[in-house]
Write a structure and sequence with these properties.
Rossmann fold, 13 helices, 41% helix, globular, iron transport, signal, Bact_iron-sidero_bind, transport, ion transport
Length: 292
Amino acid sequence: MVIRQTRRGFLCGALSLLAAPRLHAGEPRRLVTLEWLATEIALLLGEHPVGVADLDGYRRWVSVDNDGLAGAVDVGGRQQPSMEALNRLRPDLILSSTLRHRALEQRLSEVAPTKLLDDEPQDGDLLTAVYTATKAAGEALGRSEAADALLADFDTKLADIATDIAGSKLGGQAVIVAQPLPGVPRLRIFTSNSAVMQIFVRAGFTAALDLPAEPFGFSTIGLEGLAALDGKSKLILLAEEAPAELENSALWPMLPVVVSGGVVPVGLPSWPFGGPASLLGLATNTIAKMQA
């Protein structure tokens, strides 16, 4: 996979490294992460943040290395963290998201050097963005070699999954990945440029619907949109079970994918916007459910 770097991205990265904290040897870093992707990557690189935005949500939805957050403090919501909580923690570095906090970057930088991971790529390739974010976090944390090793391991494990799938009855299986929306009989459907859909394609599945790329990697459809799925497709549902809003609809039991038993609820954690561990975990858990 080729990772493109613009001149602007290079300059921003260089400036963030110049602003990075200078820690004394052996001194633990006081890292705060304000987006779940940043939290996951930091933990995978061996860092234990002292502050995390929406900590309970991370433990429920992402659940990667929760033990590494035993001493972490919740610093408020991911969209609007508490500046008071951040100041109390006196962090050495804040790691967050371009999508979430571009507008807050100046304020955050007044608390501590801040690195925003680019999770809003211009080309819309959200899997490449995971690679880019992992490398950028590695540079900001002084763990570039660990970041490269993490991504190499990710590629190896994904290739192993693809080999296993190719030799099984699941090879070429048509799938669609969906997340129920609370309170309405609608679904968030992940498009071809999403990280999660690209992972399933690389693992040896095919896309059940030809959906155009979307800026955030998903579109929203009603049950009528699922009528295009035939009885041979699998609907991977990122939930414990089909919610009542779907099951109580008169159309739901008539859908070919439902009639054929093609709905696969994968349960939690199942975070489709995460990093290497989240994506691999989602893929392996789904395959296990489909093979059961």
